[in-house]
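Severity: low
Component: inverse-folding endpoint
Summary: output formatting inconsistent between runs
Steps to reproduce: submit the following structure tokens with default settings.
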């Protein structure tokens, strides 16, 4: 208990407002865990798992994998935009064809069948 009071007095422990969403709560917990890991690393009390985790984050392989994931994300976003664009173009062509039919005096075949 003395550690908690001493930490509060020295200003090390900060108060956080409650998270409003599960994602915000997750981010708070990640931040707290990172802060604790940093403290342990500075004090030399970090476990081998913590040390290994941060060593892996700094490796070339990890950086390349992260870059690959970012490029894959960009590719997926570009494909999604391409599909949406293709749908818009298809709709524009359809509207243009219908407008030309009406302009030339031909109605849609469906409209003709409904009138009879």
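Observed output (run 2 of 3):
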């Amino acid at each position: 208990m003395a550690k908690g009071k001493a930490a509060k007095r020295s200003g090390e422990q900060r108060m956080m407002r409650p998270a409003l969403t599960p994602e915000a709560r997750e981010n708070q917990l990640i931040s707290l865990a990172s802060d604790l890991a940093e403290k342990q690393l500075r004090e030399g009390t970090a476990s081998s798992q913590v040390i290994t985790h941060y060593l892996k984050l700094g490796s070339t392989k990890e950086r390349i994998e992260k870059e690959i994931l970012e490029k894959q994300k960009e590719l997926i976003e570009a494909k999604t935009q391409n599909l949406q664009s293709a749908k818009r173009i298809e709709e524009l062509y359809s509207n243009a064809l219908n407008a030309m039919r009406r302009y030339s005096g031909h109605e849609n075949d469906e409209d003709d069948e409904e009138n009879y």
